[in-house]
Amino acid sequence: PTTDCFPSYLRNYLICKILEKRGGELKMSFPEIMKWNGWGYSDSKFLFNKKGQAEFTGKRYRLSGMIIPGLKDWMEGTFGANLQHKTPATVSPATLNKAFLEELKSTGIPFSHDAEDRVFRAHGHCLHEIFALREGKFGRVPDMVVWPNCHNDVVKIVELACKHNVCVIPYGGGTSVSSALECPPEETRSIVSLDTSQMNRILWIDEKNLTAHVEAGIVGQDLERLLNESGYCTGHEPDSMEFSSLGGWVATRASGMKKNIYGNIEDLVIHIRMVTPRGVIEKSCQGPRMSTGPDIHHFIMGSEGTLGVVTEVTMKIRPMPEYQKYGSVVFPNFEQGVACLREVAKQRCAPASIRLMDNEQFKFGHALKPQVSSIFTSFLDGLKTFYITKFKGFDPNRLCVATLLFEGDREKVLQHEKQVYDIAAKFGGLAAGEDNGQRGYMLTFVIAYLRDLGMDYYVIGESFETSVPWDRVLDICRNVKARIIQECKDKGVQFPPLSTCRVTQTYDTGACVYFYFAFNYRGLSDPVHVYEQVEHAAREEILANGGSLSHHHGVGKLRKEWMRDTVSNVGVGMLKSVKDYVDPDNIFGNRNLL
Amino acid sequence: MMFLSLQHRDPMLKKRDDFEDMLEERRNSSDLRYALRCYTPVLYKGLAPCKASMLKSMVLQSDQLHHVIGQVSRETGRAADDVQEEASAILEEMAHCLQLSTVRFFAFTLSKVFKTLFRSICVNEEGIQRLQQAIQEHPVVLLPSHRSYMDFLLMSYILYTYDIALPVIAAGMDFMGMKFVGEMLRMSGAFFIRRSFGGDKLYWSVFSEYVKTMLKNGFAPVEFFLEGTRSRTSKSLTPKLGLLNIVMDPYLKGEVYDINVVPVSISYERILEEALYAREMLGVPKPKESTSGLFKARKVLSEDYGSIHVYFGQPVSVRSLAQGRVNRCQFNLVPRHIPRRPSEEIQSFVNDSAYRLVRAQEENMVLKPWVLLASLLLQNHHQDQTAGQKRGMVLEELTAQAVWLRDMFREYGAFLHWPVVLLDICVGGQVKPGEPHSTVTPEEELLSQAVIVLSCASYRNQGLHVFLRPALLASAINAASSNLKQEVFNSFSFLRNMFSNEFILCPGATVQDFEEACYLLVKTGALQVTQQELLVTERGQRTVAFLTSMLDPFLQGYQVVCRFLCEEATENLTEKQFVPAVRKFIIKHLLAGRLRYTEVLSSDLQKNSLAALLRLGAVQKIKGRIKLSKVTYSSVFLLRTCVNLTYNC
Fold first, then answer.
1. Is residue B12 very low, low, confident or very high in pLDDT (cuts 50, 70, 90)?
2. What is the CATH number of the domain that holds A457?
3. Which of A276, A519, B401, B505 could be joined to A308 by an S-S link, Cβ 3.0–4.6 Å?
């Protein structure tokens, strides 16, 4: 779905440019392309132009360069945000540690202890992290960054780290939203951020078995693009795929938008190679399934960097789909929409992706509609609205939209499409066109940029997810949204918050639900604290309503406190004993998970 | 731990709403027009009202009922269709079929009736507004106090008047016996439940699903009486938990975000059934509800029943009640439609909530001067009796004492309704309660006197909750062997425990109650609390004496039951025989002048003391027979303590 990619030649060129000798040390980073204190590319962002209209800059996305006339009104209407004030940002100074430096130098592996490099790798994308960055406040940051180039480099680094008792925190794409990259403030040893970004090659493709062996530092969009060149894809497309890395997916048990066809990361992975303080862990063969005791891959997947560094992964690949088609369905209300998704899951005919937005989110999507190019389109839009609300009697304050993505042979796609639309019709759903569907998916990639715009105008927000059995979906959506609104009110938020949700994945027995919430923090002395309290309350509500601690974001440090309740005492003990064996000196000391 | 700072909220500062008389408008405008006016209540989330038939089919198609039908059919070997039919019949027998036309009929006739019976019906309109708000936000449960058959008609009448969604009301099956009236009530929103259906899974399932469906869809507020039955004594009854469990379930299982529970306090100046109640407690059985009985009862129409005060309390959010008390994750691992016994955690939560809600009802009960006068007259009457005189009280003295008592009531936070000019007292001949009519036998004389005393006591009881904790403390101070705090606390704790079937005392709140009692007595200058001791002050003597004598009749009641069990109970005493046997025993002692309080003849008191002794393990129920506990040592000790304690007082 990303129409525009970050070309690797450009990246290589930049890396060459940046690889400058500076006092015998190497500096390697690309802050010129990436924002250091916000989401994504530096050239892509929302801003309000001189006329006060919203605009999305750059050329990377379908929305880039377009005027979005509805956004300002929506923001003012929803948050009471006044687009007048702005807040600047600064960076905190660095502290150095040289213990392990000398030996590292002799290996020739590039490293840096430049402040910018370190701060860049000291955070993920949780709201409090970005907020602190923008305010120029930041706690513990890594003392240095190393850039291994291959598996053997990682082995060397980990050996040295063990020898000198240095703490290693693996860093992939930096898109964590669980405080997993935060350095533990109580850590007294030197912290080394191990950046896998240079390990980004596809080592081989096996067309007979349809597998590819890839270095774990590769970023999602590069992996897809390179495979596409050979006519293949992995089909793994998490919303963060522009920036997140293969190693990160494995370490957090990631899930992709098109998992209905391709599966989640645990279904895609055939072989993993991980460097741990005890040595390298991997399986001896690539059989498609094994009965050899508990699957050791499951100790690795979801270990969140606490056991070692994933260096190479063999993944399933598929021939590129012949045909792709977007679609959308309007339902009279959210209940009907969920019932339809449930039926689709029951009949096991879910398209590559099917997502259901609630009414508030539908309105938000509407606000992000680009300026229409002609009177005719505008007229057509008006006609559609008239048909749905007046003729079909849908209440604009209750209706909701499902977006669909079909993939495969052209013929099968069309057949599949019909099947899904027929089911939808039984639940009062009306087909609402490809365009709405495509815009829905585009929004996924742009929404993270929107948070940065919000912060410029005293609006902070975040999303979080869960998975829940089907019979609980409606209850959890209603209760969590209501809880967010109530908590905001109780905590003194002056304007009603945005509290919306969508169902993003379907399974045989349940669904993945995403919640989005944002509020205007003017008048609050400690907005991030308020935000954290609300998110905490929302998570408790999720758990009380039978939702899981996380569907794919992981636990990190943000959700650690609920781990014991989630997996039981014995469960925690099991994980602890694995950690104790694999990493007795806590070299991988990011303190996630346990 | 125990004697912490006494920082209670001063009960005098309780803010309460003002009342409006809703009958006033009825007296000035057409009842017919009122009954036919446009009625458009606002519903939960702007829902359209649901037809009774649709509601039934929702219940019959529910997952829970399907599950239970399957289960029953497997267990009994009956065909599922057969069981389904039974379920459908149960539902048919139970379900309400609210019809606006019937409501309008009631609106018309009740207007006429109320205007003749009552001087005014006063409602706090702010409470009505809060209720209206609450209904739009979350499903609502109405919990009125229960003193009279009038209660639920009155509730619906008020809600109709203020254009608020009419509730569906849980009513006992005995009403169904009244042919025509039963159906009328059904059409005005009542649904009928059997009094006992202990083991009947199917019945329970239909019933709970029916209530939950109405509640969680927000079709109508659900109304029921926490006390389970009408209180014959004007004291609040220990709450029953069955229905409260059911209505809290949708919240606990996450089916609704929250539920608003609204306690409603209905205070009658004079209860319609007043004389009936006293007779019932003295052994004249309760007349079976019948339509003809209702017509015979129409002579009440010619009497004056004063005014009614209805106070709609602050809506209580079940979510906030459960906050930090119930872990809702306990429902994660079993499908929610499979009925399960509530966990201990939930049982204790529901129990505590029930007590809190009954206390909330008590708190907003409006007290009239008669309550104070009855308390004073009763005490005086007993003193007279001991002294063997029958002199009554001089009106001036009574007035002076009443003023003293009024101030005390106020300080304790009572919701007093004190007229600016005290009306020409209509007690008239009753300033001396218990003036016996000339009757034949001494026993008959005693009983007819007891009717009057019990009626008087029911007035006094209306105000008991105000004094309860200080009175327990006062009695504890009297009973304790020293003034040491710990001693007094122990004796307080014992008394409180013993009386927890008699009064509304939240389980496990002994320390809070003790502190509250200390606070009130210290605040009013009756008590001094030092590091070690509790000392009654000079001016506190009168208060303490008054408070102690408030509890005295109850103490004597418990004592006499203990004595009966120790001295006279035979091997084969069944629960049924208990009350008549105790009554005989008491009458004997009363006639012999060995007992002071005629009030102990109340079967309510006797049953409560038996329940307390059962709870405390002093007696046991084996195969329906009441026996002194096998662990005789401890039970005898317990009984002794009861007896000694009461002798001391």
1. low
2. 3.30.300.330
3. A276
Residues of chain A found within 8 Å of residue B255, distances taken between Cβ atoms: 475
Question: What is the token pair recorded at B624?
Answer: 């329906």
Give the pLDDT confidence of A220-234 residue by residue, as tens digits.
999 999 999 999 999
**pLDDT tens per residue, range B324-350:** 999 999 999 999 999 999 999 999 999
Q: What is the mean pLDDT of residues A87-91?
A: 44
- Are residues A424 and A456 both part of a single domain? no
DSSP A62: T
Within-domain flag for A369: yes
ipTM of the complex: 0.85
Q: CB–CB of B410/B9 below 8 Å?
A: no
Interface of chain A against chain B, CB under 8 Å?
Answer: 471-472, 475-476, 478-479, 482-483, 543-546, 565
Q: Are residues A35 and A148 in the same domain?
A: yes
Q: Check: CB of residue B306 under 8 Å from CB of residue B271.
A: no
**A462 shares a domain with A404:** no
- What average pLDDT does range B592-604 have in this prediction? 88
3-state secondary structure of B260: strand
Tell me the chain B residues in contact with residue A472 when contact means C-beta distances shorter than 8 Å.
254
Mean pLDDT of B109-117: 91
Using DSSP bridges, classify how beta strands B307-312 and B260-268 pair: parallel, antiparallel or unpaired.
antiparallel
Direct distance between the N- and C-terminal alpha carbons of chain B, in angstroms, rounded to an integer: 28
- The helix or strand, by DSSP H or E, that contains position B384, with its residue range, turns out to be helix B369-387
Contacts of A97 (CB under 8 A, 6+ apart): A143, A144, A189, A190, A191
Which three-class secondary structure string do you get for B559-626?
A: HHHHHHHHHCCCCCCEHHHHHHHHHHHHHHHHHCCCCCCHHHHCHHHHHHHHHHHHHHCCEEEECCEE
Q: Residue holding tokens 């005392």? A: B505
* Amino acid at site A182: E
Nearest C-alpha in B relative to A478: B257
Mutate to test the interface with B, among A359, A475, A542, A543 (most CBs of B within 10 A): A475
Whether residue A223 lies inside any domain: the answer is no
Rounded to 5 degrees, φ, ψ at B628 are: -60, 145
Domains identified in chain A, total number:
3
Task: Give kind and range of the element (H or E) at residue A206.
Answer: strand A202-206
State if pTM tops 0.90.
Answer: no
Same domain, A412 and A462: no
Residues A396 and A518 in one domain: no
Domain with residue A370: its CATH number is 3.30.70.3450
Range of the domain at A418: 323-438
Confidence of residue A68 (pLDDT cuts 50, 70, 90): confident
- pLDDT of B643 reads 55
**For A524-580, how does the pLDDT look when each residue is reduced to its tens digit (9 = 90+)?**
888 889 999 999 999 999 999 999 999 999 999 999 999 999 999 999 999 999 999
Continuous segment of H or E residues that includes residue A504: strand A498-506
**CA A197/CA A216 separation, integer angstroms:** 8
- Around A362, how many Cα atoms within 13 Å sit in the side-chain half-sphere? 25
Q: Is residue A504 part of a domain?
A: yes
Distance (Å) from the alpha carbon of A543 to chain B's nearest alpha carbon: 7
